[in-house]
Structure of NtaA/DmoA family FMN-dependent monooxygenase:
Amino acid sequence: MKSKKQLKIGVIVEGVGWSYWAWRHPNMPANASESVDFYVKMAKRAEEGKFDMVFLADVSHIGPGNIPHFLSMFEGVTILSALSMATSHIGLAATIATSYADPFTVARQMASLDKISNGRAAWNAVTSNSGGLANYSRRHLSKEDLYPLNKEFIEIVEGLWDSYEDDAFVRDKESGIFLNPRKMHQLNYRGKYFSVDGPLNISRSPQGRPVIFQAGTSEAFMNIASKHAEGVFINGDDYNYAKQFSEELRRRAVLAGRAPEDLLIMPSQHIIVGRTETEANEKFLELQSLSPPGYRTPKPLFFGSAETVADRIEHWHQTGTMDVLLLRQEHPSGIDDFIDLVVPILQEKGIFRSEYESRTLRGNLGLPFLENRYTKDKA
Ligand SMILES: Cc1cc2nc3c(=O)[nH]c(=O)nc-3n(C[C@H](O)[C@H](O)[C@H](O)COP(=O)(O)O)c2cc1C
């Protein structure tokens, strides 16, 4: 499917970087993964670049073999709450695994972040790896439980976000009426894994409710994501895989009664770009020099001069394989390079904005405002 929307861009902020060795670069603060100043700087820079969102990946279980970023990092909602006060337009997406959290708490945290940021929050509802079962007192569950549990979890969170109709709160001092109780709804969800009465004790945000993203690859994943996800984070290493996977997801979304353009395909890319191919190559070699001999990584798929990289982005976007480009940073100047060199070309091509269209994440991503389920059919 050819994309009808403009390209959207998110940046996966990963402190010291998505690699084992980038932290050794002289310009990379070695504590970036747990530096609020670093995160604020990145979010503000991304907002200057008119990016749609800061996206935070997460991990549920670590050991000494993980990349340095995962060894000592912020919890997502906490750092995004801080970023919401330092920014005004950029979206804020947190990964919280459904396998280990509690749906009432997640609904509450994400709705709070959504209101604190005036409608800029998104939740990436992954299952995460099964290693986390050992950290969260869930040893009684198996890997096979994770997607059925994911489905229940998301249904509950969506339901709780509709606890109040948009005009439920009267807050009229004269009459003394604070709430119209007929516009408050209990969920009464009874599932195999969770039992939640509701209602949630927070009203809806300017974007109705947070945007839902998901990430995974399996059949079970696709069945859930095609119904619930508004964006799917995919591995962008292989164009043919990305194309086929996104077509299949959209096919299933249509079968589920959704408009195909309401499910955004979001491949992540580590991009190395220079004014010229030679300059990009110098940056690549600089990164290579940080790893011990024998640890050689291939050049990224999106590599070279700004024109080359912009052309490749345009191709992925035009063929419906990249609705949202999720940038991964590794070189300390990676995001600056992208904003300074590639964004102006994308703007010239007419595929990326020069100004934000909206103050909400939903508005900027071109996603519909979701009516509250209790008022939807009344309209
Ligand atoms: C592109 C992509 C991104 C992912 N990001 C995360 C993440 O940030 N945190 C996490 O715990 N798991 C992440 N996962 C792992 C998934 O949650 C899931 O555990 C894994 O993909 C296995 O499910 P599957 O068989 O459906 O692929 C990611 C998976 C994919 C494919």
Observations:
- The chain is about 35% helix and 15% strand.
- Residues 57-60, 95, 97, 126-129, 215-218, 221, 233-235 surround flavin mononucleotide (CB under 6 Å).
